[in-house]
Amino acid sequence: MTTRTTPTSAAGELVDAPLIHLERLSDRQRAGTSCCWCSGTPDRRFPVRILRLTGVRLYAFTPCTGMYGVRETAS
Fold this sequence. Notes:
The protein is an alpha+beta fold. It contains 2 helices and 2 strands. It is globular. The termini are far apart. Mean pLDDT is 81; it is low at 3-11.
């Protein structure tokens, strides 16, 4: 029996996550002090990786991590 694996995108493991438009993010979201999706208080254990985006650190609010599959990273 063959088991299928879920393909991952080049952006990582994000699942059904809303597209992030850098130009639409607030200053707080770009600075990593607000979630990049909901503007809630982000958890630094959950960085949101964007393809080759330098100088910007995006983080996710804990409920968003569960919805969109953001993995926790070791600090």
